[in-house]
Amino acid sequence: MFTFDPSSIDKSLPVPIGTQLHGLLSYVLSFSDTPYGTRLPSVRQLAAELGVAPMTVNQVYQQLRDEGLVEMRPGLGAFTMRDPRKALDDNQPINALSRDIDAIIAKAEMLGVPPMSLVAMINARAHMRRPDTGLKLVFVCIFEGPGRDYVDDIRSVLSPLDTIDLVTLESLQADGPEYRLCIQADLVITFGHREAEVRSAVKGATILGLRFLPSQRTRQTLAGLDPRSRVAAVTHFQEYIAIMRPSVREFAPHVSDIRVTWSSAPDLADILSTCDAVVFASGADHVATLVRPSVQCFEFRHAPDPGALEAILVPKLAQLRQAKASPGSERETA
Q1: Model confidence over 227-269: pLDDT tens digits?
Q2: Which of 31, 87, 210, 320 has the fewest CB atoms within 10 Å around its CB?
Q3: Residue 172: CB atoms within 10 Å
């Protein structure tokens, strides 16, 4: 059964309960390890836990369904759609190598070859066989600053012949230059929870949604907070206000005094003035200019999941490269 903390929904905030609930569920469904087919609480059960009308929960579930995050099974309820632990479909080419990989590992063990030596040997051979087919990629982000860092992370698994452009979701206007970049690209990459939105904006393009995780630096900074700190957690989008407190507590469980708000809230300055530490979500950068010099202030930054880059993106690129290099092959669409 899917679980989350109903106390993350704050009825004292001037943000609709439905908006908070959608932001919380979409974030958890996109970034957690919840496996495919996990049943969400029923509409009536969740409405009772939150003390809201069933219609509010039902509307949120319908919105999550339209975004490709849940599926509604008649008579059974809502179930998760994405499966972070199932990296590839059974029909993907990478799965055809499973037995060969097992055989190579077994032979290396028999010959006394350490696993790291085997990995180094494979990496060396791979560099000797650099692909001669470059791909055109586009990463669709929300904010350019973090987006540039995400692109740098993605470049680590690309070929030197590949190119990757950065565009914002807001810039994807029909027939605009950013739109044309996506249409002409071999692959458009974005966040898992934005995949349906990008797919709708750029119909016909090959879209791949990747999982993102809180960055290592963010985790370490949160873990290092003084337990006595009064922390302000500031989001840019009101929709994601309900996820701020559990996100901070995940890596700073020793901190109990956490106040959440958003970057344009009328009482933002008052909240910041009473806190010893401030953590703000990407997009709320101006908050740093409002904080006293003595107050610790940092961004809650995400980064592409390294496992998703290796297990999902790399095989997808190999598949696209093979299709592009084959004479007469048609451009694959997702």
Answers
A1: 999 999 999 999 899 999 999 999 999 999 999 999 999 999 9
A2: 87
A3: 20
Instruction: Tell whether 209 and 220 lie within a shared domain.
Output: no
Task: Please indicate, yes or no, whether residues 157 and 16 belong to a single structural domain of this protein.
Answer: no
Q: Are residues 17 and 150 in the same domain?
A: no
The answer to the question of residue 197 being in a domain is yes
Q: Strand, helix or coil at 254?
A: coil
pLDDT band at 1 (very low <50, low <70, confident <90, very high): low
Tokens of 234: 């500031």
Q: Residues 67-96: what's their mean pLDDT?
A: 69
Q: In what order do the strands lie in the sheet with 296-300?
A: 257-262, 230-235, 277-281, 296-300
Range of the domain at 112: 93-128
Q: 85 in a domain, yes or no? A: no
Task: Annotate 19-54 with b (16+ C-beta within 10 A) or e (fewer).
Answer: bbbbbbbbbbbbbeebeeebebbebeebbeebebee
d(CA 93, CA 206): 17
- What is the torsional sign of CA 101, 106, 107, 111? positive
Q: What is the pLDDT of residues 83-139, one digit of tens each?
A: 544 444 445 555 667 678 878 888 888 888 888 777 777 765 665 455 567 999 999
